[in-house]
Specification:
Largest sheet: 7 strands, parallel
Strand order of the largest sheet: 3-5-9-13-17-21-25
Distance between the termini: 51 Å
Strand content: 25-35%
C-alpha cells in the first residue's frame, strides 16, 4: 500500500487492519506453497522475480514514511504482514506499538519520537531498523523480540540502533534479539536498562556512549562481546568479567 492507503486503513481501526493482515498472510502462504515465492539478490537488494510474489510484496507494504502524526498513534496489537516503513516519521506526542507484530521487518530510520515510544512486547520478524532514530523521552522495548522470519529472504532477527539517540530511559529489560545487534555510535543520554536481555548474536559496540546509569544484570551476551570502545559515565552494573572492557 502507498502512504495514503496505509493511513486510511489505520484510521479504520485495529480490527479492520488485522483482518486485512490476515488475508495478506494467507495469500503469502498460498504463494509459497505454489512455489511462486521467487526472488534474486543483487548487491544486497532483493528483487522478486515472480509477478505473484512481486505483487504481494507491493500490496502488503505498510508505508507511513515522512508522515507527521498530529496525535499519539496507537498501533498496539497491529499485525504488519509485509514490510512496514516509518522512515523519517515524526511522533511529537509519542506512539504505542505494544504487542505489535511486523512479519517481514520494520524500519524507523530517522524517525523522531517526542514523547513515550512504547514497543513493549512487540515482535519484529526478520529485522528492526532504528538507525538515526531520536527518542526524546522514554523508549520502552521491554520484552521486545527481534525474531527470524518465517520465509526467506529475511535477516534472522537483526536489530540496528546505530547512531540512534536515547534522551530518556532506554528500557530493554527482558528484550531478546536472535541475530546481530548494532549499537555503533548510539548515544544513551538517559539511563539504560538491559537487565535479563538476551542477545544471541554478535553485538557491535563502537563509539557507543552511555551518559547515564546502565545495567546489564542477568543479561546474556556472547563471551566475545567487546566493550573496549564504549564510553561509560558511571560504572556499568552487571558486566561479566569475560566481556572485553575498556582499560
Amino acid at each position: 500500500m502507498n502512504k495514503q492507503a496505509s493511513l486510511e486503513l489505520y484510521a479504520s481501526g485495529r480490527s479492520a487492519w488485522n483482518a486485512w493482515a490476515k488475508e495478506r498472510s494467507q495469500e503469502l502462504r498460498r504463494i509459497v506453497d505454489a512455489g511462486l515465492w521467487q526472488w534474486e539478490t543483487y548487491q544486497g537488494d532483493v528483487n522478486f522475480t515472480n509477478p505473484h510474489a512481486r505483487s504481494w510484496h507491493i500490496e502488503s507494504v505498510a508505508d507511513f514514511s515522512y508522515h507527521e502524526f498530529p496525535e499519539a498513534p496507537d498501533f498496539s496489537g497491529f499485525v504488519f504482514p509485509g514490510f512496514a516503513t516509518f522512515v523519517a516519521a515524526k511522533f511529537p506526542l509519542g506512539a504505542r506499538f505494544a504487542e505489535a507484530r511486523a512479519m517481514r521487518g520494520v524500519c524507523f530510520n530517522f524517525a523522531r519520537f517526542g514523547a513515550l515510544a512504547d514497543f513493549a512486547q512487540a515482535e519484529f520478524l526478520s529485522e528492526g531498523e532504528f538507525v538515526n532514530t531520536q527518542f526524546m523521552d522514554e523508549a520502552r522495548f521491554e520484552r521486545c523480540r527481534f525474531s527470524p522470519g518465517e520465509f526467506e529472504p529475511q535477516m534472522n532477527g537483526h536489530a540496528d540502533f546505530s547512531d540512534a539517540e536515547f534522551a530518556g530511559l532506554a528500557n530493554f529489560h527482558g528484550a531478546k534479539v536472535a541475530s546481530t545487534v548494532v549499537l555503533a555510535d548510539t548515544q544513551f543520554i538517559g539511563p539504560a536498562l538491559f537487565d535479563e536481555a538476551v542477545f544471541e548474536g554478535l553485538v557491535f559496540l563502537a563509539g557507543t556512549k552511555f551518559s547515564g546509569e546502565v545495567s546489564f544484570n542477568h543479561a546474556m551476551l556472547r563471551s566475545d562481546t567487546d566493550f573496549s570502545s564504549v564510553s561509560f559515565a558511571a560504572p556499568p552494573k552487571g558486566l561479566r568479567e569475560d566481556w572485553t572492557r575498556k582499560p
